[in-house]
Amino acid sequence: MEKEISIEWKGNMAFEANVDGFRVMMDAVPEVGGQDLGPTPKPLLMASLGGCTAMDVISMLKKMRQEVETMSIKLIGTLTEEHPKHYTAIHLVYQFTGKDLDPDKLRKAIDLSQDRYCGVRETLRKGVKISYDVEVI
Questions:
Q1: How far apart are CA 112 and CA 117, in angstroms?
Q2: Are 44 and 22 spatial neighbours (Cβ–Cβ below 8 Å)?
Q3: Would you give per-residue pLDDT tens digits along the chain (137 residues)?
Q4: Which residue from 33, 80, 81, 123 has the highest number of Cβ atoms inside 10 Å of its Cβ?
Q5: What sign results for the dihedral spanned by CA atoms 120, 74, 57, 5?
Q6: CA–CA dist 83, 43 (Å, integer)
Q7: Measured CA distances, 123 to 67, 110, 114 (Å)
């Protein structure tokens, strides 16, 4: 199965991603020519990880009959100083409120997401073969 996403240059350092009809603006920080029109790509990668595991966890907790009222995840990424700058570590802090939440069930849902279901986590764990073509149109 393949997935296609398009990226369109919007001027300066701004780019718009089209993901299944949804548009996501990305931009660089002003220090490197951006205009702060959107987040930079690396934090979006962390947001994708957070969104992926959040969807897994809340789905499993519903099946486990946990009455979650609120759930949030804070992600803290550690970037290298040298180029290409990349994350060497990402730490996730899951926070829940709800009635009679069982910490063991919360941990089980998180472990299952991290070890079995979250495709973004698996991609980051194993790395990805990246190839490219060039087309002048």
A1: 6
A2: no
A3: 999 999 999 999 999 999 999 999 999 999 999 999 999 999 999 999 999 999 999 999 999 999 999 999 999 999 999 999 999 999 999 999 999 999 999 999 999 999 999 999 999 888 767 677 878 77
A4: 123
A5: negative
A6: 16
A7: 31, 17, 11
Hey, what CATH class is 40-137 in?
A: alpha beta
**Domain ranges within the chain, ordered by starting residue:** 1-39, 40-137
Judge contact between 110 and 53, C-beta under 8 A: yes
Q: What is residue 44's three-state secondary structure?
A: helix
Any idea which residue has 């002048």 for tokens? 136
Q: Tell me the C-alpha to C-alpha distance, in Å, between residue 17 and each of 10, 44, 130.
A: 10, 11, 18
Distance CA 3, CA 40 (A): 21
